[in-house]
Amino acid sequence: MSKLIDIQNGFQGYLLTGEIADILPAIVEDDLPKEKRLNIYFDAYRLRLLDITQQDYSKTLILLGEEQFEHAFLSYLKAYPSTHFSARYFGQYFSQFLKDCAPYSEYPIFSEMADFEWALMSTLDAADAPLITQAELNNLPEEAWSTLKLSFHPSVILKHYQWDTPFLWKSIENNEAQRNPNLLEEAQHWFIWRKGLRSLYHSITPAQALLFNSMHQGLCFHECLEKLNDIMEETEIPAFAISNLQFWIHSEMVSEVIVQ
Predict the structure, then answer these.
(1) By residue range, what is the domain housing residue 218?
(2) Which of 78, 144, 178, 192 could form a disulfide with 259 if both were Cys (CB 3.0 to 4.6 A apart)?
(3) What is the pLDDT of residue 22?
(4) What CATH number is given to the structural domain containing 188?
């Protein structure tokens, strides 16, 4: 092994899998045996990724406990080895791993908490975009409303959780007395987004989720109102829709109003 690229690939393979055969010939041996020298990097790589994952999922860490979290991390590293040059994205599948793999899958709150924590972080990474003001909405001509469409800020995420996950997250964040998670009778919908430099979250009703999803999918305002007919009284729909539009704009969730 002499080419730099071969050495780099061999070293990367060793860090990811522990397979030593391809890199061992390139290691110079002195007072410290080759295997021990390599093992320093092998352990350091895992410890660094473990530290990053613990920071990214600090509340999930508390739910699992340090020992179980470390076991989960090592299994996750095997199932989802890092493929990105930035360690920021290493943990992006951790929630899915906890959902799919026993024994963690037996406790859905682990996966939900990890999903919520990743969503909060993702809002901070989302691209910047213009924001629509209430004044701009007010200045729209009346005839524009039926075909109006919205483009939402890139940070806006809609989630639904079967457990009281955001409330439990807040409880842990505030160092409140430890409690058990609560299973909800029906899944709760949540907005998660960035306002300024802060990640925010807000619970919404099924009707609000339907309106958002309809507009997010590119339906015009009139089509969105028609979808609400199945779950709301027709006379309540216009005021309901306008109220939600105002909330979205006030909360800095709308980037563009499209008038056709």
Answers:
(1) 126-260
(2) 144
(3) 58
(4) 3.90.930.50
